[in-house]
Structures are given as C-alpha cells and as structure tokens.
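Design a sequence for this backbone.
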C-alpha cells in the first residue's frame, strides 16, 4: 500500500493494536499519537510503532489520512472539539468505541459527517493498556464500520481496504444496528458474567468453598468479568436503552426457565438445552470476537513425580509455546488432569498431534 499518515488520540489496547497492525502491513506509514498516559507513548516510540509523539491535540494531526479516536468514549466529545480546527477535509475520521449512537450525534452536531466513518474492531482481551496491544489481535476479527450518511463512497472503500490490509474483516452496519447487535452479543454477556460472579461471591460460605472449586464451565463463562470495570461502566451508561431492553427480555426468559425447573417440565427443559446446543454449535469459530476464544486442551497424566515436567519439556523441544498450564481440580465439565492453554490455534494443533503421537490421552474443547 502507499504511504499513510495515521493519527491516534489515545493509545490503549485497541488503539495500540491498530497502530501495530498498520505498521506491520504498511511499514512505510507514518504514525503520530497523543495519550495522557505518557508511558504508553514512550513505549510505542521505543518499539518504533509511533513515529511522532504529541504532547497535546494540535496542528500535528492536520495532515492525517486517517485519524483514530481511541480514548474512552466519555472523552470523545471534548477531543473532537479540540481537533476540529486542525482537521483536513480529506482526513477519514473514525473511532473505535463499542457504542456508536453518541459519537454519531456529536459528529452531526459538529457538521463532520462528510468525513466520519465509525469503527469498532470486534476484538479485545481481558487485559488492557498499550502494553498488551498486538497486531494479531485484529486478525480474522470482524471490524464493523458505521459510515455517516453523507460520507463519500470512496472514503468508505478506502477504509474497508485498510481494514482488510490489517487482517480484519470489514462489515458495514448503520450505527443503530451496531448498538443493538453489540448490546446483545457483547454488552449483555458482560453484565451477566459480572452478575454471576457476584452471585457466587454473595452466596459462598465463609470458608470460600464455591470460590475454591469454581473452575471448568463456571470459570469459562465468567472469564469476561475480568475486563476493565471503567470501560464497562461507560458502555452501560452510553448504550443504556439497548442493554436495558435486552436485559428485561432476558429476565423474562429466566422467569420462564425457572418455572420449567420448578414444575419438572422434562420436554421444555430438554428443548431448551438441545436448541441452545444446536445453535451454539453453528457459530463461526472465530479467534477474535468480543468474547475471545481460548486454545485449550486437557491431558490425562500419571500422578507421579516429573509427569508434568516431562510433558512440558516434550512441547518445548518441539518449539510449542505454552501460555498457561495448571492442574484441573474440577472435572465436572472438563476431562483431563492437566489443563494447557496455548497462544493460538496453530500451537494447539501442533500440541494435539505431538501428544497423540506420544500416547497421551487428550481432550479438546
């Protein structure tokens, strides 16, 4: 691709990952950034991801081909007001927020519709901050674009091409569609996961028996509760109507489910779990959705000294990197004595082949 100048207002997990992806796929691009966290800027400069660090939002951003608003959603209005005097009409202005209604309304109020295309990479992590950013975060992830009604088609096409170059999959929606869809498949699950964790916290005994054995299925479905509380507070406060409506529908659904259980309704309960299983199994197996996939397998190993070390050495000798490893104490929903997590699909597949060749009994999920 030709040389690009890209500006970043905010350089956290998502902004940093976009910057790294652009630098990887467009190595001659020029990237400039501003962030209140100067440590993130210095690290990005040291890693040669950012070429120019700005101490404020100023005229340095005036010649950008793309300008990414990556600060928390609550700061976008102020940042836009500061940016407006410096913006070139040729700049494609975008954001990365997971709620779009507010930013589109502000863009309209500032008469910037002709150059704004909302953006939301459907990728993330329980970790946050530039130090956890990586170019691969965007690979094969949907990247939703919400163009303003008056933005020229050539700008939309250019942005789609950039998203594709970064390894992501562009998907165009209206901002209203975006906010409803993400409320259902991303925002509501985070609310539910946090509620489930707090339910266990409040129902647990003083000696913490529930916490001690919480693993397997419970730990998997509540993993996203470890995400940034500030970010999810802001999402609930900005996508309120959609989340609230879906939450009320879910509460009604739970009430019906409760009646199935209380009344021992065998057929309804079976249909519930069978329908859910069938629909869940039809999902696209994507590694970078809003609820991130894990590359995990469990292995049966002998209960004897050195068994774990032998397995770990075997993987290391064949250059298979392990992200995490631990004893699976709770096997109610997962088989195998040793739980191993890998960084990516390729590493997991290599481990499956290697361990199978050495007569280990493995369980994948």
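Sequence:
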């Amino acid at each position: 691709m030709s040389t690009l100048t890209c500006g970043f207002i905010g350089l956290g997990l998502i902004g940093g990952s976009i910057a790294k992806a652009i630098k990887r796929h467009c190595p001659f691009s020029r990237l400039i950034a501003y962030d209140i966290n100067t440590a993130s800027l210095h690290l990005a400069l040291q890693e040669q991801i950012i070429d120019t660090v700005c101490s404020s939002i100023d005229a340095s951003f005036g010649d950008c081909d793309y300008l990414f608003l990556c600060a928390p959603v609550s700061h976008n209005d102020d940042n836009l007001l500061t940016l407006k005097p410096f913006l070139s009409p040729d700049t494609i202005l975008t954001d990365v927020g997971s709620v779009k209604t507010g930013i589109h309304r502000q863009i309209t109020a500032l008469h910037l519709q002709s150059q704004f295309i909302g953006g939301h990479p459907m990728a993330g992590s329980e970790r946050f901050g530039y130090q956890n950013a990586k170019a691969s975060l965007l690979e094969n992830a949907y990247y939703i674009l919400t163009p303003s009604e008056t933005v020229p088609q050539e700008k939309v096409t250019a942005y789609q091409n950039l998203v594709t170059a970064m390894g992501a999959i562009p998907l165009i929606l209206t901002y209203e569609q975006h906010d409803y869809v993400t409320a259902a498949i991303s925002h509501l699950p985070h609310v539910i996961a946090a509620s489930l964790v707090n339910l266990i916290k409040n129902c647990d005994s003083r000696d913490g028996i529930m916490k001690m054995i919480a693993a397997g299925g419970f730990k998997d479905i509540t993993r996203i509760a470890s995400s940034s509380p500030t970010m999810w507070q802001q999402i609930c406060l900005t996508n309120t109507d959609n989340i609230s409506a879906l939450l009320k529908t879910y509460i009604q659904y739970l009430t019906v489910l409760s009646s199935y259980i209380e009344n021992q309704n065998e057929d309804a309960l079976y249909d519930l779990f069978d329908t859910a299983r069938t629909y869940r199994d039809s999902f696209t197996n994507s590694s970078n959705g809003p609820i991130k996939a894990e590359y995990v397998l469990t292995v049966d190993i002998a209960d004897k000294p050195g068994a774990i070390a032998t397995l770990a050495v075997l993987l290391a000798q064949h250059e298979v990197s392990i992200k995490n490893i631990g004893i699976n104490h709770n096997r109610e929903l997962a088989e195998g004595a040793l739980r191993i997590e890998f960084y990516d699909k390729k590493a997991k597949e290599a481990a499956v082949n290697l361990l199978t060749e050495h007569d280990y009994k493995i369980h994948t999920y």
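The two ends are 39 Å apart (CA to CA).
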